[in-house]
Amino acid sequence: MKELQHLNKYFLKYKTHLILGVIITIIARIFLLFTPRYVKQIFVVIENYMDSEVTKTALKSELTEVILFIIGAAVVGALLTFFMRQTIINVSRYIEFDLKNEVYEQYQRLSLNFYKKNRTGDLMNRITEDVGRVRMYVGPALMYSINTITLFVIVIIYMVNASPKLTLYTIVPLPILSVIIYKLSKEIHKRSTIVQEYLSQLSTFTQESFSGIYVIKAYGIEPQTSANFRTLAKESKEKQISLANVQAWFFPMMILLIGTSNLMVVYIGGMQYINSEIESVGTIAEFIIYVNMLTWPVATVGWVTSIVQQAEASQKRINEFLKIEPEIKNTSTTEPHVDGNISFNNVYFTYDDTNIQALKCVSFNINEGETLAILGKTGSGKSTILDLIGRLYDIDQGSITIGGTHINNHHLTSLRESIGYVPQDAFLFSDSIKNNIKFGKQDATDEDVIEAAKNAQVHKNIIKFNKGYDTVLGERGITLSGGQKQRVSIARAIIKSPKILLFDDCLSAVDTETEEKILKTLNKISKGKTSIIVSHRVSSAKNADKIIVLDDGKVVQEGNHESLINVEGYYQNLYLKQLSETTEK
Ligand SMILES: Nc1ncnc2c1ncn2[C@@H]1O[C@H](COP(=O)(O)OP(=O)(O)OP(=O)(O)O)[C@@H](O)[C@H]1O
């Protein structure tokens, strides 16, 4: 239960609801417990009539009175049971909501390295399955425990009052029932976890097949994919059947044990009545109702124990994850002004997970309002430089300053707010084009969105869609071409009008003519801002104030277009190659 103590703060938050729920549960049980006593009363009244102690009219009026009481108690009991669920189950939903938010906020705080080390499926599980299991502890387990305790205490008092001997015989099978249900619940849990794993494997498999359907069709490997799916589905079916086999035992066991208890009541109660140890047959009827009332709560003891164990394991996983500190921490309490002067001084950086040293002694300066172009072979470290400016990773050695302030002394939020970043893979959300562009500036007006789209040279494409800017993208909507995606992604970055603009090879999928137009407008709108353009094309770099060429994480060339085309090296080769390609066309 140690791990579940994390939830105490939530119990405290909703204490009023919880206390009310507990009180309502107790009162509801008391009302429901009137029924067996009134049923006994019916037998007593009839017995009295048979013994000619009361008249037929008196019998009728007494029976009517008792029946009305039974109906009244049942109605009040049912109403209170409704409110019991409304309070306690609702609290469990509130706590589930709070916990999901807490987990999600932690996801947002954690650095990129965390995401590389954990599989998406595991991360999803924590926020859905684990939180769901914890909710079962907060809601049903708590409610059934209060229910069982109240019912047990009151019923046992009533039973002992009526006949201690009969009580003893009737409750003997109940602990056995509890233990059996506990063992069954554990086995069910074990098997359903395996079933869940298979289900998630199946959904990952199908999801990947749908996403990669182009590749599957292009290679004509549909039969092979279907065969793989069938094998996985067959294994999943076998696990489901094995789960169903255990689940099938649940109710027969319950029926068997309830039946045994009922038999005991009838047999022992009957003997006691014959020996005049109990005054009325009504006591037997009363006991039969008690036994039936007790079996479900007693069975839930086993079930609840297993729920609590599962919740404990899930909360442990959640707690371990909540304790993780983000590797990139905001240490600044002030918010130093972020301007566009960026300077890298002998920066070394190694990726933790692959141990690849992506940058080796990289130094360069860029002043506010200037444009820097970074070129170099694939894997030479260009994107890494952009990631470091956004402080997505901390460097190993050297320093990075922005506006003269060490990057670590900048407030993380204001630093990132000052940057407009266009990644290499333009990621767009399954939402409208308008919202995808506004993502960069939530309070942007429609006019701002249109202007940004115009500057990114994508406005004309958007208005050709039937729904224009309201066209939905992604799984629920249309698919944009690679170049259109890149331009929407550029519009998203420039709408913010940030101090620093980072373009990571984001014009690779547009033709050179559109590239020219975009670069021209970018040049216009980035006046006074610092821009860094990563590219494989000389055409993207030639107008930059400064160009650096990277090779294997090192700066091997530095200058501007005019100076670099005149020295032998990567830039000149690239320039000549691309020049001959354009003249050949
Ligand atoms: N997230 C990462 N985790 C581990 N290693 C990485 C990661 N990103 C890049 N690397 C490695 O770091 C090196 C530099 O990669 P980077 O993406 O900066 O190169 P790049 O010059 O931008 O390449 P490209 O032109 O192909 O985009 C490569 O060897 C790459 O494999």
Write the layout of secondary structure elements.
Layout: H1 8-13, H2 15-32, H3 34-50, H4 56-109, H5 112-117, H6 120-162, H7 164-171, H8 173-211, H9 213-219, H10 222-274, H11 282-322, E1 342-350, E2 357-366, E3 371-376, H12 382-389, E4 397-402, E5 405-406, H13 412-417, E6 419-422, H14 433-438, H15 446-455, H16 459-464, H17 482-494, E7 500-504, H18 512-525, E8 530-534, H19 538-541, E9 546-551, E10 554-559, H20 561-565, H21 570-584
Parallel strand pairs: 3-8, 3-9, 6-7, 7-8
Antiparallel strand pairs: 1-2, 1-4, 4-5, 9-10
Molecular structure report:
- By secondary structure, the chain is an alpha/beta fold.
- It folds into three domains: 3-322, Up-down Bundle (ABC transporter transmembrane region fold); 333-418 and 498-585, P-loop containing nucleotide triphosphate hydrolases (Rossmann fold); 425-497, Rossmann fold (3-Layer(aba) Sandwich).
- 65% of the residues lie in helices and 10% in strands.
- It has helices spanning 8-13, 15-32, 34-50, 56-109, 112-117, 120-162, 164-171, 173-211, 213-219, 222-274, 282-322, 382-389, 412-417, 433-438, 446-455, 459-464, 482-494, 512-525, 538-541, 561-565, 570-584; strands at residues 342-350, 357-366, 371-376, 397-402, 405-406, 419-422, 500-504, 530-534, 546-551, 554-559.
- A six-stranded mixed sheet has the order 6-7-8-3-9-10, sandwiched between helices. Strands 2-1-4-5 form a four-stranded antiparallel sheet, with helices on one face.
- β7, α18 and β8 (530-534) form a beta-alpha-beta unit.
- The mean pLDDT is 86.
- The protein binds adenosine-5'-triphosphate.
- One of its GO terms (molecular function) is ATP binding.
- This is ABC transporter ATP-binding protein.
- Residues 342-577 form the ABC transporter domain.
